[in-house]
Amino acid sequence: MESPVENYLHDLHAEIVQNRNGTVYTPGGAPSSADPDCFGICLATADGHVYEVGDTRTEFTLQSISKVFSYALALSDLGFDAVDAKVDVEPSGDPFNEISLAAGTGRPDNAMINAGALAVTSLIKGSGGKSAIKRIVRVLSDCAGRELSVNEPIFEAERRHSDRNHALAYLLRSFDIIEDDPTAVLENYLRHCSVRVTCRDLAIMAATLANGGTNPVTGVTALDLAPVERVLSVMMTSGMYDDAGAWLTSVGMPAKSGVGGGTLAVLPGQIGVAVFSPRLDAHGNSVRGVATSQRLSRELELHFVRAA
Ligand code: GLN
Predict the structure, then answer these.
(1) Which of 70, 111, 221, 267 is a good FRET partner for 257, with 20 to 30 A between their CA atoms?
(2) Final residue of a structural domain among 159, 193, 227
(3) How far is the CA of 259 from the centre of ligand 1 (A)?
(4) Considering only CA atoms, which of 245, 249, 277, 216 is closest in space to residue 18?
């Protein structure tokens, strides 16, 4: 017996599944997802109720959505001032892989574009016998409420075709934004991009952010409140790259997309929204992810600007 929320999600899913526009991300020619037609929608409330429809248990890679969590971890480890000295909090309005570094200093505009995310990843060090990547995967797993791992074949494919990110990492070191070996930083970055999740995981991760850093299903505190607030603010202006303005207008929730087909959106204090569908638009955002989020925002009144 389905709940009214699940009935509603079923109808929405049946409608939007008809949309077959967009192209699947293929790092190095290998499809990032087995089935381009997969489509899942999952909502998780800040008090731990989960509603799901469609392909919510199919795994795909987090890709750029992982930037949200590495940024939060760096902010927790180093404090705001040290991270801000390396990465700004300004929307770039640029595509995700743009070489957009401030003239003179080389400081990336924000942590949601690749340049900023590479800088952030370089700030995360090993600690307590755990490598930096293990610590990042730990935070991701605590947010999802289950043990996550790296999809090694996707990581290898990304690594073999990372000339642009490689160039970015070296450029960042030339400005002393990155101080470690750029190749090692790049590999850590690509590893956290290659962590596999399901749409259900993504919704619980979003609900953890909505709940101020404590996973509402497991009760585990994955992140502190202050970094979560900061990360949500930057997601608001920069999470959807050069589509951020249109997203903010039509959906009105801090969000982050990944080229693996995931979209994560958060209404703080209320709900986490996740959509999985691999076909992407020209910005690298999921076509159905954007369409579904627009409908959910309108029909469930999730836009953060609401007339009383
Ligand atoms: N692995 C991808 C890259 O760095 C992630 C990009 C994304 O999801 N937008 O190019």
Answers:
(1) 221
(2) 193
(3) 6
(4) 277
Contact 91, 242 (CB under 8 A): no
Q: What secondary structure does DSSP assign to 162-190, as a single string?
A: -HHHHHHHHHHHHTTS--S-HHHHHHHHH
Phi/psi of residue 267, each to 5°?
A: -105, 105
Domain boundary among 178, 193, 208: 193
Ligand 1 neighbours, Cβ below 6 Å, are: 63-64, 96-97, 114, 158, 165, 193, 258-259, 284
Tell which residue, 161, 99, 89, has the closest CA to residue 120.
Answer: 89
Q: Is the pLDDT of residue 175 over 80?
A: yes
CATH number, domain containing residue 121: 3.40.710.10
Domain with 230 in it: 4-25+37-52+198-299
Report which ligand 1 atom has the smallest distance to the Cα of 194: 1
Q: Is residue 32 scored above 70 in pLDDT?
A: no
Best residue among 23, 60, 63, 187 to mutate for probing ligand 1's pocket (most ligand atoms within 8 Å of CB) is: 63
Q: How many residues does the chain have?
A: 308
**Inter-residue contact 264 to 286 (CB < 8 Å):** no
**pLDDT at position 87:** 97
Say whether both 75 and 8 belong to one domain: no
- Supply the residue whose CA is at minimum distance from atom 7 of ligand 1: 64
Write the DSSP assignment of 259-307 as a string of letters. Answer: TTSEEEEEETTTEEEEEE--EE-TTS-BHHHHHHHHHHHHHTT--S---
